[in-house]
């Protein structure tokens, strides 16, 4: 139901971000019926798409190397820094 296709970053992480936003902004209350749930999710999605909400991806290759270097080394010792 989402219309904006990511151009950068992991599509899976972006999907997780969207589901998190849905949970915080739309599903954070009791909804009495399946019909009302469907209506609320459709309204939320329509509004989000109208506003063309985008994910601001900031995890670059350099950031990944910095943060994940220790794991790269554990998986394959050839990746060990000098």
Structure, briefly:
This protein has helices at 11-25, 34-50, 61-75. The protein has 3 helices and no strands. The radius of gyration is 19 Å and the shape is elongated.
Keywords, separated by commas or semicolons:
82 residues; mainly alpha; 3 helices
Radius of gyration, in angstroms, nearest whole number: 19 Å
The largest sheet, given as strand count, sense and whether it forms a barrel, is:
none
Q: What structural class do the secondary elements suggest?
A: mainly alpha
What's the β-strand tally? 0
Work out the helix count. 3
As an assembly, this protein is: single chain
Question: What do the pLDDT scores average to?
Answer: 82
Poorly predicted spans? none
- Give the helices and strands as they follow along the chain: HHH
Specify the helix fraction band: 55-70%
Distance between the termini: 47 Å
Strand content: under 5%
User: What sort of overall outline do the alpha carbons produce when their principal axes are compared?
Assistant: elongated
